[in-house]
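Q: Protein A?
A:
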Amino acid sequence: MNPIHQHGLQITRRHFFEQGSHALGWAALASLAGADRLAAPAAAAPTQSLNHFPGKAKHIIYLHMVGGPPQMDMYDYKPVMQEFYDKDLPDSIRMGQRLTTMTSGQKRFPIAPSKYKFAQHGQCGMWVSELLPWTAKMVDDMCFVRSLHTEAINHEPAITYIQTGNMNTGRPCLGAWMSYGLGSLNENLPTFVVLVAKPTNTEQVQAISARLWSSGYLPGEHAGVSFRSSGDPILYINNPPGVPAEIRRKTLDGINALNEINYQNLRDPETRTRIAQYELAFRMQSSVPELADIGAEPESTFALYGDEAKKPGTFANTALLCRRLVERGVRFVQVYHNNWDTHSNVAGRLPDQCRDVDQACYGLIQDLKQRGLLDSTLVIWGGEFGRTIYSQGGLSRENYGRDHHPRCFTIWMAGGGIKGGTIYGATDDFSYNIIEDPVHLRDFHATILHLLGFDHQRFAVRHQGLDQRLTGVEPARVIRELLA
């Protein structure tokens, strides 16, 4: 809303006469700047793509492993650590690094080498853990970044940071930025969809809040729409018993008419968002049930993703839905898979976690490839930070725990303009410090925006007097070595 109009609606007559300086101040500001220029540019959504140049990625599937996967047990092979078993982490490696409250009180920081075997795979020679046999088959389709780092050491700020570019809440997430910049490809489905997969093991799940898929200061229509893992994909997607579609249509027409009157009076852009969302919800009553019905998929599909794909809510089922969503024009699909916060019992939990995602990720990449969708779909896999090489709690050769570690962690990407078979960045023998090609979260975001066709320095929205960007105000760079 224009701030002058908003001020006029909110101020009382008595307050107006008591505080006449308000009127003088606004009059002066309006005469200097022009009333129209006081309205925020973010008030209206773009009517067409805002690309700065042609982007290779038209869709993103972001698979977030909530809790932080242990990189040294999966992708960051450290054979030298076998010689350091139960020895204290050297001070020269730790260098006074900040610790969480879970391990800051420990008297020792004993090294816990990975109990899992590694082997090299593909032409790129990527080292992959025995826990990921399906992933190992497709390393030449993937790009591995082993040098990502962040300042956040606890889950809430860390997840918020990697999703929104800031540790503080209230900012738009990556999916909202993509929706805002590229717009919709299917008027019958949301531009941005969120799926929460159920892990097989639920020993230590983290809270997942809807604020992670918020549109922040962007128009509300760019927020993610969360699909449920069981029952109706969206609450109240079906009409109540005895309410036919004709009655629902008439009801919505009446509500929209009232909202339009409200908009004409107040000019609040969120009122227009509400009208658009009501209409989208009505169209989704036919599009969403068809989307969620995987019964027509051939058996070859389930052979690819695994039998777990037939079970609603599993990660494999969610991965299959990702393909179906992208196939129907959804721009951004965010998936959350919980229980990666392995403070203890790595041996009891990590095999389940890897089993949940391994074949399903392989199936998703191969499915997208054979349908001609991988070149235009960027798939991202990773957590909010890594894990420590030293053990939290009890330590044995066969079991151990790992604390949070922001200094280095591994993610992988595939498709959407990424160079397959790339291994970027390196860490020391302890998987503790980066020794080659560090990648900050800002660089990660700048690279993703580049793949979408945006210059991260120019892709901005004016909010509270500042040009707000996903990458913030500190320097960020596009990692061109990752680009095809």
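Q: Protein B?
A:
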Amino acid sequence: MSMTDASRPLLPPLAGLCSFAEAQRSELSVEECVAWMKRQHYLLVRLHEIFTSRITAEPLFELKSAFSLHAYYCAEHASAFRQRVSELREPPLGLEVIPHDSLKLLCDEVLAAPSHSELVVGIYEVIVPALIESLHQYQQTTNLLADAPSMRVTRFCLLEMQDLVTFGQQAVSSLVDAATRTRLAPWIANLQRAIQSAGGVAGRSLGQPIAMPEPQFSAKPYVFDPVPKRDSRFRDSYNGGVNPEAFLYDDRFSARDKVLMMFYKRLREIDVPEMMASILQQTPVKPWKYYRDMSRQLWDEARHSLLGEVGFVHLGLDWSQIPINFTWSLNLNTQLEPWERHAVLFFIEQGLMPRTGKRFEWEVGQNSGIPLAAVIQDFDWADEVLHAQIGREWYVREFADLNEALGYGDRCWSKVMSHWREYLETGLTRHSNWWPALYQAACDRWKTAPDPAALSFNTTYENTRADLKGISASG
């Protein structure tokens, strides 16, 4: 039985996507949509490059962490745009082609920013807002029904780009004073001029042609700095006076006490993004999915570090009072080739898969009486399973089998010289044992007496690496 118009339910038309007026737009053809999206894709790819290039040498912990997250967002959204362009009758895709020299100059200038003050202004006040404006314009111009798949891509991208701006506004407010802003005003004007010279991000702006501005910071090409930098909260970063893995796997110590050491290990994981950023920056061109997958892992490792910070806050302890060592990322970045670093990364990940690895840490958290520790380790374990899968896709497949891949990773790690004795003899550190003071402070918070055996723990990294195998201690 058919319903008359009078009896038909008043449901949203067109699957709720848009109005009939919006579904009748005819301004953009498929070709024009593709050209526009390629420009948005270009900015996302370049933002990913800018973020990953600056993680290692950025001292501020909060910026290292945010750049790790924002690089991952950009990798995800670039992937979505690549997929959408591939659906729109566009072989070959041409996604690696620079859409306009002025957009290249814009990104080159921000990439080469001499300090984080210029960097956050260039990213969060110029490039990302320009991208957001372009995404809004696209939504207001394209046919919302015919081009509905592109609308999903732009909607999700807008959501997270707006998150970037929210973070960036606070970062700029904190890092850029009035004098700095005055000094940067001509540079900011040149960045905006570069966007105008390109016809806007969309390339559709009408009016008098505007000449491309001259390069300023990018007149000297940017060079990636592989040496990790830390802010003033990270004291005594060469200190290898405590081997937390030796404590963690010692049956004499309680699960509760081991959680304190696990929180330290999680916080220390900021060295993994510092190292992975060097792989992304120094590895020859790979398929885009490689960058997406590796950026996910890089962000996960930064997130683990933040969870370690949360653990210290949960226990009421100040992590800045203890050394957070950075020599793992320092030594890998300066002693190994990118492929060798990847080999070490996978070897470590695979070593975390057996029962004595991440499952063991989760069980420690479960038995500790500290529920947050169990949650942190539960998700940390899940992440590491994913990371092992990423390693199998992008690393193991280059070898005859898993054993050959693992053997190579072990050999690469064995090549790394710890310089433990050298750091001591040159005065970079005294390798002090910071554990007793931290443990005593935790026991005071717990209102319990310290375990004498745990309090006297004094195993260093002088002759053993994190998997408790021997290492070369000097250069």
